[in-house]
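hi! just following up on the protien thing from before. the input was this:
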Amino acid sequence: MQETNLKDALQGFLGSYLVEQRQFSPHTIKSYRDTFKLLIAFSRRQFGASILSPSHLDVPLILNFLKHLEDQNAGRSNRAQTRNYRLAAIRSFFKYIAWQCPALERQAKRIRAIPMKRYSAVKLDFLTRQELKVVFAQIDTQKPEGFRDFTLLTYLYNTGARSQEAASAQISWLNLKEQTVSITGKGNKVRLVPLWATTVKAIETYINHHRRKPKPQAQDSLFLNQRGEKLTRFGVRRIVQKYMRRATSHCESLCSKRLSTHSLRHTTAMHLLESGVELNVIKAWLGHASIDSTSRYLEADFRDKKKALEKFAPPIYVASSLEQSPSSSTDQVLDWLNDL
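and the predicted 3d structure came back as:
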């Protein structure tokens, strides 16, 4: 096609290309959509310009936008990972543009050459078993909303589900008799996860006694909000963060940790690892596409073991046995032989 307006290009990209050709999940498509909402809004604020066609998205504009994302003062204070994710969406769009509009192929090539930013691996903060106990202690299970929250946190910890996966959870995913749940995750991949008997009991009690009457469109949704609609991933995050904030005032060790809903997923992985579960099983449990993602927990576990080793020093008699005696000079040896 010839030069097109931006609206038509984005409709083709988000509504057709990503769905039919790339088979991206609705969640990923929404995230890509949000990238362009941010980019267009940034352009209007900074330059007072209306972006009418893809050709207006040039390299200087993209670079300024990426800088704005990380700006701690006037920008969005995003981390490098988020900046890279936004760039990935823009790169993907220009891959589509180069295919659809050969006249923009050179511009698309320059934008796709913008490098991802290198960054240090973020520390995986997770909860110890005692810290997790404090978090659960903050929930009032005598109230319907409290029991829903208790069931939600139990479900998240048991399954290691992402916030979006928990928000999307369907009653039809559950096989309470077999104590399993089939979770549909990233890329619409389905994984089967076992449930504890206590998780099954919590879910049954929640569904039978505390779950609100669902709206027609949410009949099969497991976790509902006060309006009877399914929880969004943002709703899941708000619930989890509420109890983590409360727990922080009762548990000093939580104050130094950067906690989020994903911290429960890290907690599941670390507790599985501590329990001796094989790495490939944890990979399948969490729905990781690559074993490399799961291996991060091995590194975190090893760091914790090294810290423990520093406190667990060897006995003095072991250390002293390894100390070398001062070497004797030749004269000392001869004197000793003469005295023998």
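The beta strands are 174-175, 180-184, 190-194.
The two ends are 103 Å apart (CA to CA).
cheers
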